[in-house]
Amino acid sequence: MIFRVMVLGCLLAVTHRAVSATEIYRTAAQPESAPKYTQMADGRIGGLCVELFRLMEQQEPALRIEGDQHFIPLKRLEKRVRFGQLDFLCGVGDNPDRRNHFIYLQPPIFTVRYHLAVRSDDPIEIRHWDDVRALGNAGIILVNHGSGAIERLQAIQGLIIDSGGSSSAANYDKLLMKRGRFVYYRSPGIEADLQRHHLSDQIRILPTAMETIPFYILFYQRTSPARLALFTNTLQRLADRGELARLAECYP
Description:
Helix content: 25-40%
CATH superfamily of the largest domain: Periplasmic binding protein-like II
Domain Solute-binding protein family 3/N-terminal: 31-249
Organism: Aeromonas dhakensis
CATH topology of the largest domain: D-Maltodextrin-Binding Protein, domain 2
Pfam families: SBP_bac_3
CATH class of the largest domain: Alpha Beta
Order of helices and strands: HEEEHEHEHEEHEHEHEHEEHH
CATH architecture of the largest domain: 3-Layer(aba) Sandwich
Radius of gyration: 19 Å
Structural class: alpha/beta
Protein name: Solute-binding protein family 3/N-terminal domain-containing protein
Number of strands: 12
């Protein structure tokens, strides 16, 4: 990870002259991933990542981003970037497997907090992972299939994890059917997700943030230095001008 950050620092010195007049970067939207991507009333896909792409295109006329109006599940999206069928994915956390297969761009685009959610009639309060471990089989944690949180939770010994749910909606159903004690999901995201599924009165979010995780843009590992530098320089300029932080503030 440190090595890749050092490499990116060197890449920032690559000039735009090495890049063609218009560089097209391919990505896709991730379903069930608000606030990164959200389905809007008119059928378009919006969200933090889409707004970021448009800001980057305004900042750098030589850069164009395509594919953000098409949903691809996270595992498939990661696979396509890993093998160069797409150039990058937007807004994912760090885990050991990803470090081996992607380039992490700096700076992170925003930070999320992971919370446990329970049924509204469940009086339990959780302050730290030891409270969850103490529950044994009565403390099953439901996590979306393919989520980057799975590896991090597995590294915390003693937790019982069920990652079979294909989406947050599937895990909410499992929670309400008492097939798990907790749903593990991030904020921002879970609040709007519960409202969208009309579940805010049936599921409550526990106040303790169990993790605070930076979310990054991850690039195809064999991206050329010139293409990577153009994208990274543009992202850094938005961060330096405060526009990246202001965008993240729109999605608390």
